[in-house]
Amino acid sequence: MSEERTKILRMLEQGKITADQAARLIEALGHRRFHSGPDRFARRIHRRVSLSELDRIPDIVASAVSSAVKTGFQERSEVKTDFPGKHSLFLKSISGDVEVSAWDEDKISLEKPGGMTKVRERENRVMVRSISGDITVFVPRESKLELVSVSGNVEVTGMSGKLGLKSVSGDVGLSDLTGELKADVVSGDLKMIRVSGELLVESKSGDIELEPVGEFSGKISSKSGDIEVRLYPDADVVLDMECEEKGAITLDMGFPYEILEKDERLLKVKLGSGTRVLKLRTRKADITVRETKED
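RESULT FIELD:
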């Protein structure tokens, strides 16, 4: 693999460039080699792309990453699967679905390390990289999870602790979570059911569905996907909502709330005592707040 492509993948891994920027650079390498110095390379990195190009990212990135990391990967039968006493997991998956579930055991366990899988341990941390295969992982309920997924669906259930998530081209489902959640989703829908804590979520082009419980706050933002929030009557929060360029804000709740501020594309309402704040932002999409229907 060329030195330039290695640089691109390394910068993507380190978070210095985004997946869309990496995809454009990798695609350019497929047509012609770089014959220039660092200045032209840097200018290519900072090239801006439109939302319409995001759908092309997953296959390009997955293919490039796959060719880059084959060395050191193991077949399923050779991979260690149980890690007693571990409570921190880094998981990167390319072209495969991921399911992470919390349990009462004091260990991290890999149930289905499909495709090519590489596993490392470092102190309290388990690092898993998987290519072209689905993977199921069980973690202790109080855990730290860092998850990167390219071209695959993600499900995370039952955790309390700290969750960092980056997903490119795949739907994401999060349920029964509490703690600190930071999620960045590109080109996929995001559903968060029975979640609480500090929520910091950004979506580029997918819809967001949120059903929070208990104490919650943070910021949920979407560029071109709708946001729907379903609240219980005991919600204690200020909703700070804004559609920046176009879109509508709709309230469909049967319990009391107080309007604190209202403008053409901005609405701020208080439910309960309003001890916490949840910001909802879209650029070109709708925001809808409904009452949760009891089962």
